[in-house]
Design goal:
It is a single chain. The chain is an alpha+beta fold and 155 residues long. It has helices at residues 5-27, 31-35, 60-67, 70-73, 135-142, 145-154; strands at 38-45, 56-58, 74-79, 83-86, 92-104, 109-110, 114-122, 125-133. Strands 1, 2, 3, 4, 5, 6, 7 and 8 form an eight-stranded mixed β-sheet that branches. The chain is globular.
Length: 155
Amino acid sequence: MTFNPADNEKVREASREIFSKFCKSLLEKDMNQFIELFDDNALFEFPYAPKGFTQKLEGKAAIYEYIKDFPQRFDISQFSEPTFHFTLNPNIMVVEFGIEEAQVLTTDKPYLQKYISVIETRDHKIVHYKDYWNPLVALTALLDTASIQKLLNEQ
């Protein structure tokens, strides 16, 4: 394999653009645009998801089934500026970002989350997305106190 810094930078720029479209589609609640960012065989993982929450989605169809009702559950109006970290493999980036303004529509509670995502792209598509987030922020926004306590007792 030949190392070409100019080619690697083109791959990195394409990956940053995919991430920008990822956030834009969530802000615009355009789940069709969102799902088109993924490869047919993409893997989406939530390593910190509590027991009983989705931990892994395999394939574009499963990812779409999971995200299709997003606009009815969340109203995101602002993401923080992302910080990109690239690995030696230009197709893999680590992105630090957060949701700065959002509301869970089913509970009327704010949803202010910080993420570290490890994203692998290939041929202008996301092939693997590992989504690290704080489960306590999600539980507090999505559930009432009794449900949170019950869930934590089951962990």
